[in-house]
User: Fold AraC-type DNA-binding protein from Microbispora rosea.
Amino acid sequence: MVADQLSEVFDLVEVRGLLTGGIAMRGPWVSRAAVDAPLKFFAMVYGRARLTIDGVDGPIELGPGEVAVLNNRSWLEIEGGSGDGPRREVVPEADFSSAGLTSADRGTDDVLIGGRVDLNTAGRALLLQALPPVGHIRASTTAASDLRGVLDRLFDEVTGNRMGSAFAIRQYGQLLLLEVLRAFVDQAELPPGWLRVLADERLRPALRLMHAEPGRPWGLEELARAATMSRTSFAERFRTVSGMPPLTYLNRWRMLLAQRALRDGDVRVGSLAAELGYASESAFSTAFKREVGESPLRYRHRVRTALAARSSRAGDA
Assistant:
């Protein structure tokens, strides 16, 4: 199932959707800021707003239940509201329990929630390549009803002042990101990349094989047969949809699995090489360094040192 493979990739690249702030305004308003993360998203919970971003011709109109995802953009301007009077400059509320958000009127206010997507190094390479510069999830799409439901429940937690709301808001940030990516797939507005190839019905049987047994020496003939396609048609379609040949995809999938194993466990490099289908430890180490930029042991040491430092800082906070 595509959902299972998407969950698998999410776990490997440590995708986290983090809510960072919100706006609840009545009357004319505007908010301007530099974009401080490679991947940002904005969800229009209620009301309407116009989003202007560098590199895009004209503003994007956001209606209730719609989301915009910004991929490697530099700055943004969001404006909303109507009526006479000066347009107020707004700074988003970082505290979701603030009076401005908890007292918002769903019938009259513009309510906008923003967030960022955190990923590990491998995830940044995968997701940034898989998404367009700006994605607009429209309310008219099939998947938008599920997205609307998450937004409603999220805002209920923001305004409800219930026990455990901070934890619930973090979890809904994750669900919101998942529904956004599902909606991207539903709209079929994806550039070549792993997200698009996971959604491709014709290629899915071959993907299942590679994901289920990554260490097996898969050949084009066998993968094409699983997809009920000729070898040439399969190779051409795979390259068009994913942006890379099938066996390059397989190698990158192996490298993602290797990074998780080195990060989270104490497996020996030689054992990991054999498990992932490499003839020798040196062949695996060469492939790993070519893909990741450092040797497996250096990668393990660096990542674990960084994780320990992060845990220490969290403990001191």
The mean pLDDT is 86. The chain is about 50% helix and 20% strand. The CA atoms of residues 92 and 107 lie 20 Å apart.
